[in-house]
Amino acid sequence: xxxxxxxxxxxxxxxxxxxxxxxxxxxxxxxxxxxxxxxxxxxxxxxxxxxxxxxxxxxxxxxxxxxxxxxxxxxxxxxxxxxxxxxxxxxxxxxxxxxxxxxxxxxxxxxxxxxxxxxxxxxxxxxxxxxxxxxxxxxxxxxxxxxxxxxxxxxxxxxxxxxxxxxxxxxxxxxxxxxxxxxxxxxxxxxxxxxxxxxxxxxxxxxxxxxxxxxxxxxxxxxxxxxxxxxxxxxxxxxxxxxxxxxxxxxxxxxxxxxxxxxxxx
Length: 266
Known about the structure:
Mean pLDDT: 91
GO molecular function, one term: thiamine pyrophosphate binding
Keywords: Oxidoreductase
Oligomer: single chain
Protein name: 2-oxoglutarate oxidoreductase, beta subunit
Number of domains: 1
Pfam family, one: TPP_enzyme_C
Largest sheet: 7 strands, mixed
Strand order of the largest sheet: 2-1-3-4-6-5-7
Organism: Aquipluma nitroreducens
CATH architecture: 3-Layer(aba) Sandwich
Number of helices: 10
CATH topology: Rossmann fold
């Protein structure tokens, strides 16, 4: 038996989504952004909405997202993607609008924008990449940094008395009446990648059906700033981040009253 038959017994061939460009990604080895980009490309392609989709990317590691997905993009100032997406969605109601934001951007600099956009129920999808750190600017503490976690600005670990507590912003978002579907996923294994793709597809379908704001958090790694190998970073994420940022659906208006917040189990 050939090695290829052992690794891939069904002889399946993965075809790169047509929406992904040939540009070499600038992300660090082991970064989750490339996987999430691929899932976005697959979902948009599968749903046949390439010509209707507009992405909004602010400052952060994903600032060059427009280099990798062949859809319409709009850049935004740091933290302001929800405000820009609001304008695009309201003036182009037949388009499918999404933001692509990191935790330093969304949960810190853009807290007001994301909270009010979600509370208004703007018809958009939010992809929120949470790696617990400011990745692009040198690994400083972010609102999502865990207690005890070492960063460039917390060399002895985050201390609650000095730095406050980590922010579970997705739990806050789930309580807002304007949100339709709120979930927390990851992309560190084949199984979680498949689950994340389904969640992204569900969020985009909610936008197409004009159900308000859908919010997909993707708990991720930043092995470069965590100073770990990609394998060790994944292990650290599972052991330390998942107990605090628990994966699964938090709100689904197809199962619950959208004006109430009832945490859902996987």
